[in-house]
Design goal:
mainly alpha; SHOCT; membrane; Putative membrane protein
Length: 64
């Protein structure tokens, strides 16, 4: 009987570990972002200026 509880505990810990790992690394499981999406996100976060955004947007659009 005690051995059964041990296996149940191991199983629960294993499932929780996998669940936490997938939650932490969920971005790797999602589809990859397109370059324009990344550019929009960087501009929205204030990582690049409006001029840099517009220049890079023109560069991306010229490649299509």
């Amino acid at each position: 009987m005690m051995m059964m509880y041990g296996w149940v505990i191991v199983l629960v810990v294993l499932v929780l570990g996998i669940w936490m790992y997938v939650g932490k690394n969920g971005n790797t499981l999602k589809r990859k972002q397109k370059p324009m999406d990344i550019l929009d996100e960087r501009f929205a976060k204030g990582q690049i200026s409006k001029e840099e955004y517009e220049e890079q947007k023109r560069m991306l659009n010229s490649k299509n």
